[in-house]
């Protein structure tokens, strides 16, 4: 009998009997029966990592065992279930293929139903949903005190988080709660003590006119973690933190601490570690969105995002790999929009080498919107397919497509996709039947063209280039920078950044 047939309903148990004083368990692939290395085992507040064979020792009494691993659905097992399975705990392989729905999109009947139709047809199996959006808005009745007083609750597009998640799970969808962290205009304008300020003491506002909160402030950390806890309690499978960074001109702004590189990276890592600690009991995956160029930059990109450090904390790292955001190119690729496969594949491979983590540690955001930085080309189904194929070939844990308008018509079925089954190993595909696909967008929120002055050691006076999705002190690890002769490494200084631009209220940013 397949182990997958033995998987119990993944619900918390009540009136649990006690374990023996010491339990030896093993976490296995529900399809192949092989051990899953480095899986996480949580009992109460205790978190252990399974060994390379998937085995783990644990002590505890009368508590549910929660297990999760990258590339699988998380599961919970009561002590009686553990005994029935002879201490062998199966996890079902799963590769998300997700669409994004904004604060407004999830409340729009046509947009929400459009996404669900794609799911019912087997093209997607996951949704990324704004639980705290780009303008700091929280679309559900949050019980977090600050959310009730800082202006975040201006509207309700989700009446009940738990009911929403229950319905999506009933439809077989994997649910990802997106939380925009430090870009938070409602909180920053209401609580000036928690805000970022200009050198003259005035409230800092970015190019969109939005204020930011101070990443050094633990009260800001706790506010966002409290929202993440509500999402986890509602049953979301994954919490995805976005804008986990400093503004791109951090060096010229005022914070509660001096924002040097060490301090910046410590603040971002500190927040993520605390979030992971507080979310551990929920057995929810923790993901972090990062700039695409962070996968190439040797430093923190001036915003506190240091690839190796973030990869060591998060379950999933989600770089924004929109070709339009690589306006300066990448090594050996000078025209990213003409070579979307190369951009995605090379960046993911470089990130894996640098972070020294398995490929499934990454799940990229993919472009499905018109280019704004090069030649205004439309990213149609073929261009989307190239990016998805690149993600699959790199071994990443699926993909997410960004479209600020939440409109994905015309992208399914993708040409030549063979049902999208190429995204899965044969064993993984067998575990849930058919595979899927999905698109996203940047013409609003994820990508803002950035203006960079390019300087080289012996080549002063180079013209300014219109560059996207990069940031201060972009330090390519090789000298093969696009558009520049390859004899010397280039350093790029950003005067503005590439960040996500928020969707408009009607979902048509």
Question: Your description of this structure?
Answer:
The chain has 509 residues and is of the alpha/beta class. It folds into three domains: 89 residues, Immunoglobulin-like, CATH 2.60.40.1120; 336 residues, Alpha-Beta Barrel (TIM Barrel), CATH 3.20.20.80; 46 residues, no CATH class. Helices cover 23% and strands 18% of the residues. It contains eleven helices and 19 strands. The strands form four sheets. The protein has an eight-stranded parallel beta sheet. Strand 5 and strand 6 form a beta hairpin. Helix 4 packs across helix 6, helix 6 packs parallel to helix 7 and helix 9 packs parallel to helix 10. The longest helix is centred in the middle third of the chain and has 19 residues. The radius of gyration is 22 Å and the shape is globular. The termini are far apart.
């Amino acid at each position: 009998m397949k182990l997958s047939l033995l998987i119990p309903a993944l619900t918390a148990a009540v009136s649990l009997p006690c374990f023996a004083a010491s339990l030896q368990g093993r976490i296995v692939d529900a399809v192949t029966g092989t051990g899953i290395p480095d899986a996480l085992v949580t009992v109460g507040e205790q978190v252990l990592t399974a060994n390379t064979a998937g085995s783990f020792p644990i002590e505890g009494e009368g508590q549910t065992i929660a297990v999760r691993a990258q590339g699988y659905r998380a599961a919970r097992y009561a002590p009686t279930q553990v005994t029935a399975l002879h201490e062998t705990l199966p996890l079902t392989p799963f590769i998300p293929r997700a669409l994004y729905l904004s604060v407004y999109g999830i409340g729009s009947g046509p947009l929400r139903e459009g996404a669900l139709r794609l799911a019912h047809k087997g093209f997607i199996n996951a949704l990324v949903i704004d639980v705290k959006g780009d303008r700091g808005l929280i679309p559900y009745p949050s019980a977090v005190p600050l959310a009730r007083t800082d202006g975040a609750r201006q509207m309700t597009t989700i009446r009940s988080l738990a009911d929403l998640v229950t319905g999506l799970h009933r439809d077989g969808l994997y649910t990802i709660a997106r939380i925009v962290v430090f870009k938070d205009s409602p909180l920053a304008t209401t609580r000036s003590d928690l805000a970022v300020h200009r050198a003259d003491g005035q409230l800092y506002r970015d190019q969109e006119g939005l204020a930011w909160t101070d990443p050094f402030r633990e009260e800001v950390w706790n506010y966002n973690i409290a929202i993440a806890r509500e999402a986890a309690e509602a049953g979301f499978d994954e919490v995805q933190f976005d804008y986990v960074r400093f503004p791109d001109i951090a060096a010229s702004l005022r914070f509660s601490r001096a924002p040097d590189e060490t301090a910046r990276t410590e603040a971002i890592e500190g927040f993520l570690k605390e979030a992971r600690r507080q979310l551990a009991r929920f057995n929810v995956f923790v993901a972090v969105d990062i700039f695409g160029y962070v996968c190439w930059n040797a430093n923190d990109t001036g915003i506190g995002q240091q690839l190796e450090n973030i990869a060591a904390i998060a379950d999933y790292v989600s770089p924004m790999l929109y070709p339009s955001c690589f306006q300066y190119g990448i090594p050996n690729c000078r025209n990213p929009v003409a070579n979307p496969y190369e951009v995605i594949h090379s960046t993911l491979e470089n990130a894996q080498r640098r972070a020294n983590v398995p490929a499934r540690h990454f799940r990229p955001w993919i472009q499905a919107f018109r280019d704004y930085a090069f030649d205004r080309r439309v990213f149609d189904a073929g261009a989307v397919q190239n990016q998805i194929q690149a993600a699959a070939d790199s071994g990443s844990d699926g993909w997410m497509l960004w479209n600020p308008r939440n409109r994905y018509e015309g992208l399914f079925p993708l040409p030549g996709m063979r049902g999208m089954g190429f995204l899965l190993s044969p064993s993984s595909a067998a575990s849930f039947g058919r595979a899927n696909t999905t698109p996203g967008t940047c013409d609003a929120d994820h990508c803002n063209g950035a203006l960079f002055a390019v300087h080289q050691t012996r080549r002063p006076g180079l013209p300014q280039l219109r560059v996207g999705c990069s940031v201060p002190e972009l330090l390519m690890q090789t000298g093969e920078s696009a558009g520049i002769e390859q004899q010397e490494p280039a350093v790029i200084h950003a005067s503005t950044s590439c960040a996500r631009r928020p969707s408009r209220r009607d979902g048509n940013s």
